[in-house]
Design a protein that fits this description.
Length: about 475
């Protein structure tokens, strides 16, 4: 159980401000009621897309307008749900938004198959005209998917099953953020104070220079997870099978190929990343051996991975101090960037601190017609400061993309999604190195930056290889049991 305060006690200034999306739930309900007609409006174009380029243009305009409105409803629902997963009314909004989104996807399932059924000569002629000029890039990218697009009834069926196929992912989120979180025990921190363990405080405790504190927090945290191994394995098994089902339904050679197809990335790129990281493992092992020696331990355990190899330095920051530090680090990006970022960080983009029932971790989210909202569980550590800079990178990327592109082209691909965020981290680290005079503090920053390669390159690629292996195991017809995993 967490000792975080309930959501009702969080001051408004520490919460994100969702009023620019909807001033209240009643306004959301009004828009939701109006949105019930969206699937029918889209479906009215079914069977007509080959009539003329102007008809296709009208259909696409209707579809993108409906998607844009639906995303606004969905984002409000998922943000309110994530701020308090224990709140049944918020869960209800989220479930209804997901259901309506599924209905819209089902209604629009004919779009891809009908467009791809238009003969190549006709489509080539239409693409030279003015009616489809706003959608030329989008259409050319869609045509790439021709071998993997099904008939209209089959596409409708896939759209209808998308929500139940995602059920196990939602079940895992509830398992982690509600059930496991509620059962986490108290631990004692380095000051001898009893603390309720939580997903957010776990990482902070893993950074403690006191190895006994790290070990106790690690054991307590994973002891609770150990009691849920079978459930966690079952949810993963179901989610992987859902991926394989959709990949095979769309005639992809593998789940990996299906996952990479949308971003037009060949599986050889994925394999090359894993291979390159494997080649670099000797350097990584030398780094870990150095950590072991500097920490003075006989065996380097998992609970030794987050602590600095150097004595702790006083680099804690309040949220407001973190904003100033981050903005000074991002000065090379220009005054317009800084002014916009400051307005967002202090003016309602960020849900700042942990509260009971809040989703763990951090992310940037939003839609074309909203601010780029940021969920944080800020704790005052240096890692929290860097996380703030990281998520700000995502948010500013989204903001500028939305300003520069029409709705149907504004969403950027995952392949480039981390560029802005990691650039912000690098700029912040450079600023701190330039302005920190204390040798111990500078060494601490170097250690942290080196460790970011462990976390960002080696660790994430390990996850990528794990995902590849579990999908290959399931594709071979083998179960993903807790013991195999």
């Amino acid at each position: 159980m967490s000792d975080a305060r309930p959501r009702s006690e969080v001051p408004p200034g520490d919460q994100w401000n969702l009023e620019p999306l909807y001033p209240n739930t009643e306004a959301w309900e009004t828009d939701y009621a109006d949105a019930q007609a969206l699937p029918e409006r889209v479906a009215a174009f079914a069977g007509r897309l080959g009539e003329a380029d102007t008809v296709l243009a009208q259909a696409l305009s209707t579809w993108f307008d409906a998607s844009r409105r639906m995303e606004k409803l969905y984002v409000y629902a998922h943000l309110t749900n994530d701020q308090d997963l224990d709140n049944g009314s918020f869960q209800g909004l989220y479930d209804r938004a997901r259901s309506l989104f599924t209905a819209l996807l089902s209604a629009g399932a004919f779009l891809g198959p009908e467009i791809l059924a238009i003969d190549d000569e006709t489509m080539a002629r239409w693409l030279k005209g003015e009616a489809l000029a706003p959608y030329t890039f989008w259409l050319r990218d869609l045509l790439r998917a021709k071998p993997h697009t099904l008939s209209a009834p089959e596409e409708r069926l896939l759209a209808m099953v998308s929500e139940p196929l995602a059920a196990l992912q939602r079940a895992y989120s509830v398992l982690k953020n509600v059930e496991v979180s509620a059962r986490l025990p108290q631990v004692t921190d380095a000051d001898g104070q009893a603390r309720r363990l939580s997903h957010a405080s776990f990482i902070e405790l893993q950074e403690s220079p006191d190895r006994d504190v790290r070990r106790a927090a690690f054991d307590a945290y994973y002891r609770e997870w150990a009691g849920n191994r079978a459930t966690a394995a079952a949810t993963l098994d179901g989610a992987v099978k859902a991926h394989i089902f959709e990949a095979r339904a769309r005639r992809h050679p593998s789940a990996l190929a299906a996952a990479l197809f949308e971003d037009n990335v060949d599986t050889s790129v994925y394999d090359a990343l894993i291979s390159a990281v494997h080649d670099a493992l000797p350097a990584f092992y030398r780094y870990m051996a150095l950590r072991k020696r500097l920490l003075g331990v006989d065996t380097l355990h998992m609970y030794d991975n987050y602590v600095s190899v150097l004595p702790e330095v006083a680099m804690r920051h309040t949220y407001d101090e973190a904003v100033e530090v981050v903005l000074r680090g991002l000065a090379p990006l220009g005054q317009e960037y800084l002014d916009t970022a400051r307005g967002g960080l202090t003016g309602g983009w960020v849900d700042r601190y942990e509260n009971a029932g809040k989703r763990s971790g951090a992310y940037s989210s939003g839609c074309y017609d909203s601010w780029p909202y940021m969920l944080m569980n800020y704790t005052g550590t240096l890692d929290s400061v860097f996380t703030l800079a990281h998520e700000l990178g995502h948010s500013m990327h989204s903001l500028y993309s939305n300003r520069a592109q029409p709705y149907h082209l504004a969403d950027y691909r995952i392949l480039v999604a981390e560029v802005a965020s990691t650039t912000n981290e690098a700029l912040l680290n450079h600023h701190l190195m330039e302005t920190t005079q204390d040798r111990t503090a500078r060494a601490y920053l170097v250690d942290r930056y080196l460790d970011s390669f462990r976390a960002t390159l080696f660790r994430q690629t390990m996850f990528a290889e794990f995902e590849k292996r579990v999908h290959e195991q399931a594709e071979a017809g083998q179960p993903l049991t807790k013991d195999w995993l």
